[in-house]
Amino acid sequence: MGIIMSLIRLRRRNDDEEEIEHQLSNQNNNNSINVNVISSPWNSYNNSCSTVTHEKYSAPFVRENMRRRVKLEYAAAQQPTTVGRWIKYYSSCHRILLVGEGDFSFSTCLATAFVWASNMIATSFDSQDFLMKNYRNALSNIAELKNRNCNIMHEIDATTMATHYFLGNMKFDRIIFNFPYAGFYKNLSPLHRQLVSMFMKNAKEMINEDGEIHISHKTNGFHREWNIESVASLHWLRLIEAVDFNHLDYPGYNTKCGFGGDNNFNSYPSKTFRVNMEVV
Ligand SMILES: C[S@@+](CC[C@H](N)C(=O)[O-])C[C@H]1O[C@@H](n2cnc3c(N)ncnc32)[C@H](O)[C@@H]1O
């Protein structure tokens, strides 16, 4: 059985490489290439979930990334899949949804730790165009995520995601929103609390029975007014624990201010609030 699976993987790898070379040699202009990106979240669970997007990248960029992807897929195939790889609270065996990503550096950190990230869907509220204009590392992070078979989606609103035509039908073990902010509205805690509240309401619909919702959040100044635990209780969610957040636990993660520009913010002091469903 193992030998057959290896042969199938090898065949797919060769097909991938042939497809790359074919696409590259068909380009009249060798400076750019159109790619049909087919992503199939949980393709081993549900073959019907696939989306196709048409994207334009430079040919050397595509060539380099596709080669890298083939190598990574091969490396992943060598790993025992039942043990899982861990980084902090996250395992390659969890189905993970990330929302409100900035330059996708947090997702990239998890994906790198997992080697192969077909268990993750990483999303941003911002459009792809916004990301390209504002974050110098967004494109390379997204390419790295795609190489590792992570699914990427843009313009996903955490406050309505449970009704999303595609995400709304899925269940996750971990749903993560790092440093939710409704905009540059200092001292307007109700707006930020509303964002967190609606996120929790939606995320609750999308987690497994023993799934967890994680929010990392600053704990100084006006941030204290948000009172994440009390927001959670409004939705019958229970705080498991609030643990100190240390960005060194997540190599490569850059905390982005969002809403224009490529600025980072200091994430100290912060906590990760882990909540799950209240047992009644
Ligand atoms: C302070 S930034 C944090 C960005 C990123 N999570 C990080 O840790 O670097 C706040 C983010 O919240 C996102 N956001 C705001 N409203 C949102 C919504 N309704 N749904 C999802 N994300 C939202 C913004 O796009 C912005 O990137």
From TrEMBL:
<protein>
    <recommendedName>
        <fullName>25S rRNA (uridine-N(3))-methyltransferase BMT5-like domain-containing protein</fullName>
    </recommendedName>
</protein>
<dbReference type="InterPro" id="IPR029063">
    <property type="entry name" value="SAM-dependent_MTases_sf"/>
</dbReference>
<dbReference type="InterPro" id="IPR019446">
    <property type="entry name" value="BMT5-like"/>
</dbReference>
<dbReference type="Pfam" id="PF10354">
    <property type="entry name" value="BMT5-like"/>
</dbReference>
<feature type="domain" description="25S rRNA (uridine-N(3))-methyltransferase BMT5-like">
    <location>
        <begin position="97"/>
        <end position="256"/>
    </location>
</feature>
